[in-house]
Amino acid sequence: MNSKVVLVAGVLSVMVVACQTPKKPEAPPPPQASIRFEPAWAVSTIHHGDGRYGDLFSGASRAVWNTSEIASMKKAASTPPDLVPPRLDEDAQALTEAYVVIECHLVSEFNDMSVAYDAIRLRGIQSYMMTPDGTRLDPIQIRSFGSVDESQADALKRFSLTTVLIFPRDNLLMGMPALSAQAESARLVLEGHDSVYYFEWAGMHAGESGLRPPTQEEALYITKLGYYELYTGIRRLAHIFD
Description:
Blueprint: H1 3-19, E1 43-51, E2 62-66, H2 68-77, H3 88-98, E3 99-108, H4 113-120, E4 125-130, E5 136-137, E6 141-153, E7 156-168, E8 170-171, E9 176-177, E10 185-192, E11 195-202, H5 216-222, H6 227-234
Antiparallel strand pairs: 1-2, 1-11, 2-3, 3-7, 4-5, 4-10, 6-7, 8-9, 10-11
Helix pairs in contact: 3-6
């Protein structure tokens, strides 16, 4: 190749590179992004967000966000079994530190009994956490406690079941909280059967410490699933990185 042509091509390449707009450095995340989201209260009622069926889940459905404070309340209200697993308290503390543990007390009186039965067992339903900025978090474990309870509600059957959903508190790859304090709220979304339902918790404001004290009704839901039953059932997660 002619040396002049090579020289011109080289000069043009340098000019193109020099004319490119330098890439702006990425802005650092806001300080609240490095702080975990903490709910302002523990117990949330169910809401119908969208979709075909506004009566798939009963208004009696509740979800409890298990913080260390809620674990202490559960323990105070629970009778220890004859044989308490060793280190259960340490495991319970480790679980509330490393995971978001939400227990759902789901109730359905839907007129199609087979659909109602499937709904409270979360069959055909996607469950995930969502924040207003679009952050989505899928559960790493879903576990039901006890069996489906059936009772009569006038002409309909009422089905109820307690199911615990567990989400990671931290994104280990990013080194950041999975749900951060910059989110004003967090929702547990149940999506399926042509319907969307959700439980919602507002975030704790700066300067606040501790949950809003539960009402008498909320305390009944908090203690519905006992401390020893819950943490004995999920304690293996506390040792997942041992």
